[in-house]
Amino acid sequence: MNNLHVVDHPLIKHKLSIMRNKDTGPKEFRELLKEITLLLTYEAARNLPTMEVEVETPIAQTKGEMVEDKKVTIVPILRAGLGMLDGVLSLVPNASVGFLGVYRDPETLNAIEYYVKFPPLTEDHQIFILDPMLATGHSMNHAIKQVKKQGGQNITIMSLIAAPEGVNVVVSENPDVIIYTAALDNKLNSKAYIVPGLGDAGDRLYRTK
């Protein structure tokens, strides 16, 4: 599947194994999620647009390239996506940030929106949608729909763990979207949790359950 990129770096595997452990507490969980997001961003940002600049080194005048980070917009899906936001901003500090609040209806598994606030988006913006768990794909597809409605076109998804079912749902409806994840797990269980997964990322980040 050309849309899917699994970043299986040894450091990511190591950190993800610690995050999966049910005994890992929220402080370490948050730190590890930020660290893995940094590594994912390095890969996902390979095609960011750059501009040529003049640079004066201690030796001579030369030309260099800098990322046009003001054309980058990050959209974390609340609330778990917030755990990835600082990792991306560490590398692209001048990026704009949009927020989308979505929760999954426990009965229908449909995405229910409760908050949306985006900066202005254009076709040449590079947009990164963040959600640690790409499970059913319904919340992600809702986020993609909202981004496109606002005028965004170049969309990359960044997730910690993805389920095959969620990837298929996203790609089937949005074949133009690229997905970067740290792991493609086995499946969804009857409650639409990723197996083996790591539980509810939001609850583990903020100890809300």
Describe this entry's structure for a reader.
With 209 residues, the protein is an alpha/beta fold. The chain has one domain (4-48, 70-206): Rossmann fold (3-Layer(aba) Sandwich). It contains six helices and 13 strands. Helix 4 links the parallel strand 9 (133-134) and strand 10. The longest helix has 19 residues, at 26-44. The mean pLDDT is 92.
Low-confidence stretches: none
CATH architecture: 3-Layer(aba) Sandwich
Q: How would you sum up the global shape?
A: globular
Q: State the helix count.
A: 6
Major β-sheet profile: 9 strands, mixed
Q: Please provide the ordered H/E string of secondary-structure elements.
A: EHHEEEHEEEEEHEHEEEH
- Could you name the CATH topology? Rossmann fold
The class by helix and strand makeup works out as alpha/beta
Report the top-level CATH class: Alpha Beta
Whole-number total of structural domains: 1
**How many β-strand stretches?**
13
Radius of gyration: 17 Å
Query: Whole-number average pLDDT?
Result: 92
Give the distance, in angstroms, between the N- and C-terminal Cα atoms. Answer: 36 Å
